[in-house]
């Protein structure tokens, strides 16, 4: 079937493939921003060989231009510099207000990206995965120390411009596996791998490290360090600079200085910090509380340890998502820790990311939260957590296309992270792109079938696609993999069963949550959403108001959650959104 030959009106003119959404929908006001869109289509096609949208007929193509999300440029061509992709994505935003507002701004960004665009024609940017170092100590009790060294190297390398560094979660996913460097290179799409080992006995250290080419398997660099424990910071600097000298020999002086600029830390405090990070990375309420203990001991030994304060802030911000910890208390302690970290070191990206997360999920200070995320990205563009937090923020305020862009950025840095893969599906789901959500969430389940929350999101995607039997199966799967009572997961499951008309099961879950709330903190938002799904709106609004008063971080989902559309005109819903600083 060919093009349908739609009759063109006074406002729908030109080749359909190059039309902007406002032009394709026949809006009366068409201006220079439509031309910027069309130029974006040209650049997209020049770089990838494909148009951003295609279809067998004009009608289908117009539908895709108006409603569907284009594939990221990087998904079709992996060697595109991030700055170039950012420009094209901004040119092709659905909303004209979010595009470049004039050609001067576009030209300025294109000129600043010129050197990167030339580099695309000649070579790809260097990339690396730092694997967890192997514990060769006699007692085999230094896993936290080995992991910590590798993570510190990752953090140092992410500060290097145009060096793509795989985040910890993905790099450490090979821990204990016998995967070869060629397989690791293919799965993570990196050119090089850093691997090493640590032998720690008393105050003596032996660290070996080797940089390996993933295609040929040959060593680009290797070194053995026999030093005192006091030299650990110098060793990390030497390894980092050796890697950079091999991968990016034209390193600018200020970048080299930034790598070597390290806060002098008490060794015992550093050891405690590494143990805190070890437990933080286990991502559970119990582990986070254990991590806080180590971070607190670290700052007792070293009061100006900015990274330890930032680690404490991270733990407190996340506790209400993993446990019964009251949000108001979590917010107060997280804010104190984040502000302390930034007072010590305002250039710490982790501190700005944590502060942004607090402003999004607790303060609802949307404008300043965005400023914190942008500052964190400026300081450390390779820190995947910032992109992940920023994606949530954009979803909460209804900027869905941008949310997808940011979570795709996080995925490039951390492709094997279950949380980030799940959030890709979530971003598509809240954007109303249900087929893309289903595809992404099924991929996540293939990575780990026992990840409960993914089954809930997949169930929702099936439900909103009218695939009710498949939705019911996924909600049951969520309960199956919970492994005991979990009020947060149960809350999501209760909504799911109510959506499908299984009100008895939904009320059974609701009763369990109400009973548990008498003994400890349970999210009022999740109890309220079950009320709405059942149809009890008055009770639901009571719980939402309680969620607002208690700074429930889940309340951020109020705008994107589709099941609130039934009460979208209710003045109580509109008033609550306005109290949160959101447009209805």
Automatic annotation (TrEMBL):
GO terms for molecular function: ATP binding; protein kinase activity. The lineage of its organism: Bacteria, Pseudomonadati, Candidatus Hydrogenedentota, Candidatus Abyssobacteria. This is Protein kinase domain-containing protein. InterPro entries: Kinase-like_dom_sf, Prot_kinase_dom, TPR-like_helical_dom_sf, TPR_rpt, Ycf3. Residues 1-117 form the Protein kinase domain. PANTHER family: TETRATRICOPEPTIDE REPEAT PROTEIN 6 (PTHR44858), UDP-N-ACETYLGLUCOSAMINE--PEPTIDE N-ACETYLGLUCOSAMINYLTRANSFERASE SPINDLY-RELATED (PTHR44858:SF1). The keyword Methyltransferase does not apply. TPR repeats lie at residues 384-417. Keywords: Repeat, TPR repeat. It comes from the Bacteria.
């Amino acid at each position: 079937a060919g093009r349908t030959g739609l009759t063109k009106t006074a406002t729908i003119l030109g080749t359909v493939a190059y039309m902007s959404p406002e032009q394709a929908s026949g809006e009366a006001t068409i201006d220079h921003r439509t031309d910027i869109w069309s130029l974006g289509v040209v650049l997209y096609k020049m770089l990838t060989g494909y148009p951003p949208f295609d279809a067998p007929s004009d009608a289908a193509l117009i539908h895709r231009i108006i409603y569907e999300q284009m594939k990221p440029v990087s998904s079709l061509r992996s060697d595109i510099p991030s700055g170039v992709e950012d420009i094209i994505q901004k040119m092709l935003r659905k909303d004209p207000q979010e595009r470049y507002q004039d050609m001067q701004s576009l030209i300025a960004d294109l000129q600043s990206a010129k050197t990167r665009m030339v580099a695309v024609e000649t070579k790809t940017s260097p990339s690396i995965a730092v694997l967890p170092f192997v514990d060769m100590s006699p007692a085999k009790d230094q896993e936290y120390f080995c992991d910590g060294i590798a993570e510190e190297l990752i953090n140092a390398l992410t500060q290097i411009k145009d060096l793509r560094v795989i985040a910890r979660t993905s790099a450490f996913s090979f821990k204990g596996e016998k995967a070869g460097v060629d397989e690791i290179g293919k799965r993570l799409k990196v050119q090089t791998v850093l691997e090493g080992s640590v032998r720690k006995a008393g105050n003596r250290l032996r660290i070996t490290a080797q940089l390996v080419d993933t295609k040929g398997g040959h060593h680009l660099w290797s070194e053995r360090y026999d030093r005192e424990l006091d030299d650990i910071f110098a060793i990390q600097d030497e390894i980092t600079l050796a890697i950079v000298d091999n991968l990016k020999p034209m390193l600018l002086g200020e970048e080299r200085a930034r790598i070597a600029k390290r806060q002098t830390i008490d060794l015992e405090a550093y050891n405690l910090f590494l143990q805190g990070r070890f437990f933080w990375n286990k991502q559970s309420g119990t582990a986070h509380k254990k991590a806080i203990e180590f971070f607190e001991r670290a700052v007792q030994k070293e009061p100006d340890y900015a990274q330890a304060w930032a680690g404490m802030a991270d733990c407190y911000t996340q506790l209400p998502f993993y446990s019964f910890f009251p949000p108001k208390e979590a917010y107060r302690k997280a804010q104190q820790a984040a502000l302390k970290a930034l007072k010590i070191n305002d250039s710490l990206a982790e501190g700005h990311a944590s502060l942004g997360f607090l402003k999004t999920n607790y303060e609802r200070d949307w404008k300043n939260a965005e400023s914190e995320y942008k500052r964190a990205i400026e300081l450390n563009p390779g820190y995947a957590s910032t992109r992940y937090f920023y994606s949530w923020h954009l979803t909460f305020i209804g900027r869905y296309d941008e949310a997808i862009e940011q979570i795709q950025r996080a995925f490039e840095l951390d492709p094997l992270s279950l949380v980030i893969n799940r959030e890709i599906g979530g971003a598509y789901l809240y954007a109303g792109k249900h087929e893309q959500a289903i595809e992404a969430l099924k991929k996540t389940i293939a990575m780990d079938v026992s990840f409960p929350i993914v089954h809930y999101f997949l169930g929702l995607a099936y439900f909103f696609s009218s695939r009710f039997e498949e939705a019911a199966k996924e909600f049951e799967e969520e309960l199956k993999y919970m492994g005991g009572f979990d009020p947060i997961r149960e809350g999501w499951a209760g909504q799911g069963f109510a959506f499908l008309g299984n009100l008895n099961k939904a009320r059974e879950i609701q009763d369990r949550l109400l009973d548990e709330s008498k003994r400890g903190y349970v999210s009022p938002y999740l109890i309220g959403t079950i009320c709405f799904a059942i149809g009890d709106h008055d009770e639901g609004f009571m719980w939402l108001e309680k969620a607002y008063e208690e700074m429930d971080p889940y309340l951020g989902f109020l705008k994107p959650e589709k099941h609130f559309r039934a009460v979208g005109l209710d003045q109580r819903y509109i008033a609550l959104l306005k109290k949160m600083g959101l447009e209805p």
